[in-house]
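Postdoc handover notes: sequence design on the structure in folder B. Input tokens:
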């Protein structure tokens, strides 16, 4: 039996919602894009499977669109916190399986969690953190928070690491962080030899506690 391909609905077609919708469509998924602003809907008509103009705080309108049949609904309403909360409540009531909501701030996020959003995302905050990490240590290419305590960073081998191997650097003992992989010439090596000297442009993928990663970033900044 053919595997059911996930179907997505995206509500709110601002910068965040429209890029989620476009990417999913490019990846070949069926996407219903919804916004109460007809111009925003028009911009996506030729990109996604269906684009409709509707107010997501209107329960009947959401029911008529068959919103509960979608596997995942993303609520990407930015400024209007009230509309975002009401929409989430309605989707919950209608029995949507998985609801992902973009939060404007921590308090908004708390409310969304309380009313049953399955996942709350903070794109501006997360991107701000990434940029800040990169500013503190330009070697940090990527910073992904795994939880409030742990992260994964991608770090270009700083000059102080070059010519040394992982055994000599002893990052695990010194910083209680683990080097998961080394990216060299675009190839990810998840079992990089401990005695292989690091070169310029090598990228280390490191997991650890946030404070230990920060210490590592500062020492090698
Ligand atoms: P971003 O910060 O991602 O650009 P915006 O706040 O600019 O987000 O965009 C949010 C979108 O959500 C807007 O296009 C707006 O028209 C839409 N929107 C707001 N309220 C509703 C609603 N009740 N129903 C449908 N769409 C809505």
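Designed sequence:
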């Amino acid at each position: 039996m053919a595997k059911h391909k996930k179907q997505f609905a995206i509500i709110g077609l601002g910068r965040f919602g429209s890029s989620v919708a476009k990417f999913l469509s490019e990846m070949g998924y069926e996407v219903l894009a919804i916004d109460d602003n007809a111009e925003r809907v028009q911009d996506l008509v030729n990109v996604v499977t269906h684009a409709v103009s509707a107010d997501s705080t209107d329960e009947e309108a959401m029911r008529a669109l068959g919103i509960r049949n979608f596997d995942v609904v993303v609520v990407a309403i930015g400024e209007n916190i009230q509309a975002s909360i009401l929409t989430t409540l309605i989707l919950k009531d209608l029995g949507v399986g998985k609801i992902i909501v973009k939060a404007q701030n921590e308090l908004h996020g708390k409310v969304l969690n309380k009313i049953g959003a399955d996942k709350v995302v903070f794109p501006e905050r997360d991107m701000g953190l990434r940029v800040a990490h990169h500013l503190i240590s330009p070697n940090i290419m990527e910073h992904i928070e795994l939880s409030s305590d742990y992260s994964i960073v991608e770090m270009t081998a700083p000059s102080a690491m070059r010519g040394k191997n992982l055994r000599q650097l002893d990052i695990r003992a010194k910083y209680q962080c683990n080097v998961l992989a080394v990216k060299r010439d675009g190839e990810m090596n998840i079992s990089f030899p401990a005695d292989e000297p690091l070169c310029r442009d090598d990228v280390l993928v490191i997991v650890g506690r946030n404070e230990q990663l920060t210490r590592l970033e500062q020492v090698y900044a």
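Context for whoever picks this up: Residues 123-136 form the longest helix (14 residues). Don't rerun without checking with the PI first.
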